[in-house]
Each structure stands twice: as structure tokens, then as C-alpha cells.
Amino acid sequence: MRKIFKRFLPHHDAVHDNRWLRPFSDTLLHPRLWHLNRHSAAGGIAVGLFCGLIPGPFQMLGAAICCIVLRVNLPLALVTTLYTNPFTIVPLYWLAFELGRLVLGSASGTFVNPPEFSFGNLAAWLDAMGHWVLGLGKPLGVGLVLLAFLLASLGYAIVRAGWRYYLVRTWHARCRERQRPPSPAP
């Protein structure tokens, strides 16, 4: 599995030679941001799940900053933020709103459907989305933070457990292979 991920990771020269990333190459080329191990993979997934709920187009920027600060896998975090998209954002925000209402008390308001998406007038739609999010207020804000922490913790635990399961299974298979009697030579 590790080999599959490494095949898709950009080479250090690609980051270093990119004119937009060159000023940040010392920071972005830190080995722990690109190394794939149990800690960095779980941390990258957790950062991606947490930052995926940041409203607006700042999800990947937030994930990159968190990865640099926490020194976890950057590519995994950036890819993981893509779990929020136009199809999943409304159910996730509804879940966050309900979670916030549960924590704050049931008299905190009701969920209002978001405005219809319009390709023709994107600026007006973005403005309407901003008013929609602000109209949901405190329950949504509290719920987003709680849901982000919940998803990040769950993602971290699942990746760590899955990685451990894979390592133990591989170790047992190697032990069985060593205990197998050698086959007779023809």
C-alpha cells in the first residue's frame, strides 16, 4: 500500500522547481511532510478531515498550514479535504447544525435549506451562501468545530488501527513463512 501512495507523490525536484512554491521550498520540502508512516499518515488524514469543514475555499490552505505546524503527511491531508464537495457539504452542515443544537439546547433555531446553486450568477450565489451560513449562527459554528474534532479523532484512530492490523498481519505471515519447512531440491 505504501508503494502505491509513493508512486503518486510528487518528487522533491518538482516542488523545488515550481516557481510558485520556490519561496516556500525550505518549509515544504521538510522530510516529515512527505514521509509515509503510521504517525504521519494518521495525522495527515486527521488534519484533512478537520480542515475539510473549514467554510469556503480555504480548506487546502488550512490543511497545508496545519501539516507544516504538526509535521504530518501533506499530500494525504490535501486529498482528504476533498470529502467536502457540493454534494456532501449540505448533509455535513446539517449534521453539524444538529450537533450544535444538541449541545446548546433544542431551542437554538431550525435548519433552513441553502440557496439554489446558480452557474449564471456565481457572485450572487456566494453572497447568498454567506448569508445562509451566518443565518444558522451559533449552533452551526459550535457544531462545525465539534464535528471537525470528532471526524479528525475518528479518522486518526481508524488509520492507526488499520495500519497496526496490516503490520501485525504481515508480521504473522512472515513468521509462518519462516516456520514452513524448506522444500526439497529436485
From TrEMBL:
Protein name: DUF2062 domain-containing protein
Organism, as annotated: Oryzomicrobium terrae
Keywords: Membrane, Transmembrane, Transmembrane helix
Alphabetized InterPro entries for the sequence: DUF2062
Pfam families in the record: DUF2062
Residues spanning the membrane: 41-69, 76-96, 140-159
Residues annotated as domain DUF2062: 21-171
Source taxon at top rank: Bacteria
